[in-house]
Design a protein that fits this description.
This protein is an alpha+beta fold. About 15% of the residues lie in helices and about 50% in strands. The chain has four helices and 17 strands. Strands 5, 6, 7, 8, 9, 10, 11, 12 and 13 form a nine-stranded antiparallel sheet that branches. It has an eight-stranded antiparallel sheet with strand order 4-3-2-1-17-16-15-14, with no helix packed on it.
């Protein structure tokens, strides 16, 4: 029984025999068998039309040209920005102009080493800043009447004064100071008078003793600083007679001048006319003396400075300057 069964199984096809045709085809490689397999497919394809071939040849050239860039889309709710028209003016940019810094000081009597100052004023103006200070008297470091101008305001005072009456006015050690500081302009003003006396009718009899004033201003168009000092002024007879003694005035836009006295505008003796004395009188590294002196820095009737050019004593003097220049007679 086992023998016949074994013979029938030997006659059945084996899987190896089934793979033999595939091996023969692979061994043929690129022979005519392969060509026979591909030939029907190649023969079955038709040649493309002429216009299709031309379009395919032009396609690489069209792809090589860069595509134009599209502008970015504007955010939602915001209109797209439009380019300025040709010849249209550009938007003006704000320009900040820094204003110059100036100062002015004036004194009828100045003796810093004694802590004494009579009728003294000091002002300053700069970009977004100003100052004003006035002092009636300060004797041996003791103040009697003085004050400063508030920020963008005015202030005044006196040591003593008569109440308003129809006969005369009298004020002792009166002073006033004001400041103004804005982006376009800054200014400071100050005035001090030891004695102000007069009849109620102006000009009939008016007397002032030891008066000093200074003012400073700065703006984008320029700056100025001025001082004026009078030792004594008297007006009589409705202005028929006017007497001024120990006068000085100074400005940062010209030379200052000092006068001994003037009557109705006729000057008796002033700076620039004193030719018999050198100006200044110097003792090297010790002291310098100024008599009826006037120059671009200021003016004084009489003054003495130490070897560092700092004021020791000054009579009817006023000085102006700007920036970081030192003040010869600062108001302490």
């Amino acid at each position: 029984m086992r023998g016949p069964t074994h013979r029938r199984s030997a006659l059945l096809p084996s899987p190896a025999w089934l793979l033999l045709p595939a091996a023969v085809l692979l061994a043929a490689g690129d022979t005519g068998v392969t060509g026979a397999m591909h030939a029907p497919a190649a023969a079955g394809r038709s040649a493309p039309p002429a216009h299709t071939a031309a379009a395919r040849s032009a396609a690489p050239a069209a792809r090589s040209a860069p595509a134009p860039r599209r502008p970015p889309s504007a955010p939602a709710g915001r209109p797209p920005a439009s380019a300025p028209e040709a010849g249209a003016p550009l938007a003006a940019r704000p320009v900040t102009v820094l204003m110059a810094s100036v100062w002015a000081t004036a004194h009828f009597l100045y003796a810093d080493f004694l802590g004494t100052c009579v009728a003294c004023t000091s002002t300053g103006a700069a970009h977004n800043g100003s100052s004003g200070e006035a002092r009636g008297t300060r004797i041996l470091a003791e103040e009697a009447s003085e004050g400063q101008g508030p920020a963008n305001g005015y202030r005044s005072g006196e040591l003593a004064a008569l109440p308003p009456n129809p006969l005369l006015h009298l004020a002792l050690e009166s002073w006033s100071a004001s400041t103004s500081a804005r982006e376009a302009r800054s200014s400071g003003d100050a005035q001090a008078t030891v004695l102000d006396l007069g009849l109620d009718k102006p000009g009939m009899l008016d007397v002032t003793a030891a008066r000093a004033s200074s003012d400073s201003a700065s703006s984008a168009s320029g700056s100025r600083a001025r001082t004026r000092v009078d030792g004594l002024t008297a007006t009589l007879g409705g202005g028929a007679v006017r007497l001024v003694v120990l006068h000085s005035e100074a400005s940062d836009h010209g030379d200052g001048r000092a006068q001994i006295a003037s009557v109705n505008g006729i000057v008796l003796l002033q700076s620039g006319n004193v030719v018999m004395l050198p100006d200044p009188i110097r003792v090297p590294r010790t002291v310098s003396l100024l008599l009826l002196h006037g120059d671009s820095d200021g003016a004084t009737a009489a003054a003495a400075r130490d070897g560092r050019s700092q004021g020791v004593v000054g009579l009817s003097s006023g000085w102006t300057g700007g920036g970081a220049t030192s003040q010869p007679e600062p108001l302490h």
